[in-house]
Structure formats: structure tokens, C-alpha cells
Write a structure and sequence with these properties.
single chain, 268 residues, alpha/beta, Rossmann fold, 5-stranded antiparallel sheet, 11 strands, elongated
Length: 268
């Protein structure tokens, strides 16, 4: 794989852009590209690199898109010669076996707030392999985050939440510096659809206060029932690091539709 293709692959993963890696696994006879040739295929059919062009490549692109939808790798041989029952008109004179690998898109965590708890949550989420982005207007706090974590300082939480196209493998966690910011962000979040998890930090008193203000605006109980608040699993968390463990455990359990029950074996 060329350096340019590797750079693009890394960028696509960081941006959570679905794609598949297509590799020429084996060849026989006369074919356009040698074994080991690669290209990237995106969900919309766009490509980087080439494995030969023409009708052959178009068929591989279509198969790669199907492979991404099904989330299953595919090993397939394409005849590039006349006389084969599944020939599509190519006359190169050989066969090409292609391996298509859909790339798993990482789950994402979007954090409103960049204080101590948010910082700990962001770092742990990143270490767990999630795509992480933090929304806060305090640039000096965003600067303390690891380089791989995204930063949003030019949009308010409300504007970011309203503009983002939420997906079922994405979590929104509200851990801002005051309940007004959390309240407005939550008000925007529950009007959106698609997010797999919405959680807000705080005491039960804070949660009821925020919920009451939103109810006064006409927000339904059904919409509020989607919110995990106070967020996290009950592990007696106190420090920012413990709160991060509690939060990430709940986020992953919800996004992955797991029970978060003990794994201990009964009747050993």
C-alpha cells in the first residue's frame, strides 16, 4: 500500500468515514494489476487507488459497497477472459481474486464540556478506541486534551448538536461547567433523533431541576425518558477517573446493547 493510501486510510478511520480495503489477492494469466495492488472504496462508491479500471473495477466497487452494508469480508474471483460462464466481456486472458475488507467504524463519543470530569472521560474513551470530540468555548482547556481527540470551540453546544447528523453508534455526554449549558444542550439533543446514547452528569436534584425547566417548555416525558441522568453505572464513583469508568461502561453497554451484568460464573 502506498504512503498516500495509508495516510488516506488513517484519515478515513479518524473521520469515521465507512470504507473497504480492496486487495488483489491472487492472479492468473494476463491481468491489469499485480497481486498486492490495493484501492479504497467508500460507501458512496468513490475510490482511491485502482485495481485495473473498467467493468472489472466497477463490479468490485459494487461488491465492496454490498460488503460494507452486510459488514462481511468477501473473497471473490473475477474472470477477465472469454469463455467463462460468468464472464462479463473482459478479454485480458486471466483471472483476478480480490479480497474485500469492510473497515469497522469506531463508536463515537461527543462531550459537552472540557472540565476535570470531561477530560477524564475523553481520555478513557480514546484509550478504549472510541472516536472522541469535545465541545467547549474554553480553548485553553481543549489544549490539554490528547492530540487525537477532536475539539470544537467555534460552535455552541446547541448549534453543534442541532447541526450534527446523529447515528446509532454515537453517544452525547453532557458534562459542562454549569446546569444552564447542560439544560440548553439537552433541550437541543432530545429534539434530534438517531443518537444511541444521551447522558447528563449531575446530582438527582440537578437532574430534576433541568427536567422540570424542560417540561415547562412542553418537552414530553417520552423524550426525557431517553436521557441517562444521572449518567453512569452505580460503582460509587467519586473522582474524575472513577466517574469516567462509570460513564464509559454505561455508554458502551448501551451502544452495544449489552446488559452490563457481572460476568462471574454461577455454580462453579
Amino acid at each position: 500500500m502506498t504512503e498516500a493510501l495509508v495516510t488516506e486510510l488513517i484519515a478515513a478511520r479518524e473521520a469515521r468515514k465507512p470504507f473497504a480495503v480492496v486487495t488483489v489477492a491472487a492472479t492468473t494469466g494476463s491481468v491489469p494489476r499485480a497481486a498486492g495492488s490495493k484501492m479504497l472504496v467508500y460507501a458512496d462508491g468513490k475510490i482511491s487507488g485502482t485495481i485495473g479500471g473498467g467493468k472489472f473495477e466497477a463490479l468490485v466497487i459494487a461488491d465492496a459497497q454490498a460488503s460494507m452494508r452486510e459488514k462481511k469480508p468477501l473473497l471473490k474471483t473475477y474472470p477477465l477472459r472469454e469463455g467463462s460462464t460468468d464472464s462479463f466481456g473482459a478479454i485480458c486472458g486471466g483471472d483476478v481474486t480480490v479480497f474485500i475488507e469492510p473497515q469497522a467504524v469506531r463508536e463515537a463519543l461527543y462531550l459537552v464540556g472540557a472540565g476535570h470530569c470531561a477530560n477524564a472521560i475523553a481520555k478513557l474513551a480514546h484509550e478504549c478506541g472510541l472516536y472522541v470530540s469535545v465541545i467547549d468555548d474554553r480553548v485553553e482547556l481543549l489544549a490539554d486534551l490528547p492530540p487525537a481527540i477532536g475539539r470544537v470551540s467555534d460552535l455552541s453546544p446547541v448549534d453543534f448538536i442541532a447541526a450534527h447528523r446523529w447515528q446509532s453508534d454515537e453517544a452525547l455526554v453532557l458534562v459542562s461547567r454549569n446546569h444552564e449549558i447542560d439544560r440548553e444542550a439537552l433541550g437541543a439533543a432530545i429534539e434530534q433523533t438517531g443518537a444511541g446514547y444521551i447522558g447528563m452528569i449531575g446530582s438527582r436534584r440537578k437532574v430534576w431541576h433541568v427536567f422540570d425547566r424542560l417540561r415547562e417548555r412542553g418537552v414530553s416525558a417520552e423524550k426525557l425518558s431517553r436521557v441517562y441522568a444521572p449518567l453512569g453505572l452505580d460503582i460509587g464513583a467519586d473522582s474524575p477517573a472513577e466517574i469516567a469508568v462509570s460513564t464509559i461502561a454505561e455508554v458502551l453497554a448501551v451502544l452495544r446493547q449489552r446488559t452490563a451484568k457481572h460476568l462471574r460464573m454461577e455454580g462453579k
